[in-house]
Amino acid sequence: KREFYLFLLVYQLEEDLKRPVLYEDLTSEMKVSNACIRAYLTSLLRKNVPIIKNKISNKIVTLTINPEFRDLELKNDLVALFYQIDTDQTRLL
Fold first, then answer.
1. pTM of model > 0.70
2. Is the confidence at residue 86, as pLDDT, over 70?
3. What is the spatial distance between Cα 39 and Cα 35, in angstroms, rounded to a whole number?
């Protein structure tokens, strides 16, 4: 559930911020440590979730949703699925 939420959060924040998402953006929203974000992200990437991870100057990690996946316009369907999984969830952000 937390991994799915992280994926949806990257999806939404990239749209809202109009830039790639940073770990700090995710830790702020999810109220978890960078280590948790790294663990969730590693698991998602192993599952071939369409997140693109880039390192800038070996220091800053940016995350984006694969543009081909974004073009499928599935966000609303994915959010609806998340709400079915977690009925206590009332809003994504």
1. yes
2. no
3. 6
